[in-house]
Each structure stands twice: as C-alpha cells, then as structure tokens.
Amino acid sequence: MNTARIVVLAIALGAGGVAAYLASGFDNKPPPPAPVAQLPTVDVLIAKSDIGLGQTVKAEDLQWQTWPAASASNSFIRRNERPDATTQLAGSIARGPFIAGEPIREQKLVKSDSGFMAAILPTGMRAVSTEIAPETGAGGFILPNDRVDVLLTRHLKNPDAKGDEQDVVKSEVVLSNVRVLAIDQAPKEKDGQNAVIGKTVTLELKPEQTVTLAAARQAGSLSLALRSIADANAVENVIKEEKVTQNINVVRFGIPSTTTTAPTQQ
C-alpha cells in the first residue's frame, strides 16, 4: 500500500470520527445549572442546652447560631450588634424556660440580686404561699407554671325545720385561673420526676387577690383544681365576689351572746 492510500484512509477515518461526535448531540446538552444564590444570614444567640425557669444563666449555656436574616426577629440578639452578649447576659435569671436551640430574648431574662422569685414576678403581681393538703393538689401533678383554680371548703351549721343545727359542707371557687409559681419551693420539675407532692403552694396573684386568699385560708380548707393547658388563657384571673360573715362569741357581764361581723368583699 502506497503512502497516498494511507493518507486518504487516515483522513476518512478522522472525518468519520468527527461526524460521529457531532451526531452524538454533545453540543446540544443543556448548560450546567447556575449556582443557587446564598440567602443572607445573621448570627443570633441561642440556648446551647435547656434553661429552666428561675435558673441562673451562665456563659456556657449560650452559643451563636447562623440564622436566616429574613426570619430573624428584632427581639433576637445579633452578634454584629452585641458581640459580647454571652458575657453580658451571664448571671441573669430566666423568667421563663428556654429549650435547646431557642433564640435568647431579653424579655425572658432579668438581672436581679433579690433571688429568683422576685425576678420572675411580672410587674404589679404578688407571690403568696399557702398550705394545702397533699391529697388536694391534683394527685401531685401540679407543677410550676400550671394554671389552677383555688377552692374553699367550709363546714357550716344551718338549723333545720326543727331548729336543730346540722353540719353543712360548702365548697366554692374563690380564685380562678391563677399561675403556680412553686410547689414546696420547687421552682422547676426535677429530672425524671413527674409529680411533686406538695404541702405548700406559691401562687402569682394580683394585690386584691391576696386579700381573698388570706380570708379564705382562715375561713376553711383550700384545695387546687388543675386547669387544662388548652383553656388556661380562656379567661383572665378573676376574683369571686362573695359576702363572708363570721360569728364571734361575746361575753358581756357574764352573759354570752353571738355577734355576726359585717360582710366583706372577697
């Protein structure tokens, strides 16, 4: 085979390869997708671990987390605005619980040297403790931050048709939908503990409700009724208006008599 034929054969094979390459449609493949635009982000301060009600916050309980800027609330603490926030907030008391990963909001923290109870009380509210019987605390399943009704039970003596006195038991709701602050000075549920059998409960009350509770405590025995979380906010805290009278035995010049006190508003 002479050289001319070899050259012609090589040209033919090269042309065939080019034709096959073009026929494969390589040049018709769509271009690679454009890179996705990165959403703007911001570093916000979050709880590194669970922070309980009344717990003192430490710097190691907090950390910075990248967050989409569009969904970052104005109440979140941002690193570009407060880079030293972890040390600034150390020592604060949690007025409400935080779960791990939840953004820190200063509305739920307070700086206080008075102790946790004074720190978690909202403005204008009072913390009042009262004794309850263990069997009247909803089986021990009432915990801090639950909402309850306070019931007063009294033993009264009412005359029957013959004039004889009969014991009558009367129960009524004297306070409705009030928040429990502590049970036996337990500000939060302990790990692995599902119930707290308490003998003393601390309630969050308005000033006028403290008077109602003090009078009810002297008038009879108190018990708590646990409210469902579904209707905890259905009604505001109310005070039951009731006229309460008390009988006082008076001995004057050796002659005993009974006097009824003037009714007071509960």
Q: Describe it for me?
A:
This protein has 266 residues and is α+β, with helices and mostly antiparallel strands. It has 2 domains: 41-113, Type Iii Antifreeze Protein Isoform Hplc 12, CATH 3.90.1210; 121-260, no CATH class. 17% of the residues lie in helices and 32% in strands. The chain contains 4 helices and 14 strands. Strand 6 (147-159) and strand 7 form a beta hairpin. Residues 237-254 and 256-266 have low confidence and may be disordered.
Defining traits:
single chain, 266 residues, alpha+beta, Type Iii Antifreeze Protein Isoform Hplc 12, six-stranded antiparallel beta sheet, 14 strands
Q: Could you tell me the radius of gyration in angstroms? A: 37 Å
Proportion in helices:
10-25%
Q: Give the number of domains.
A: 2
Q: Can you write the helix and strand succession as a string?
A: HEEHEEHEEEEHEEEEEE
Shape: elongated
Structural class, by secondary structure, is: alpha+beta
Give the rounded overall mean pLDDT: 75
Low-confidence runs of at least 5 consecutive residues: 237-254, 256-266
Main β-sheet: number of strands, strand sense, barrel status? 6 strands, antiparallel
**Number of helical regions:** 4
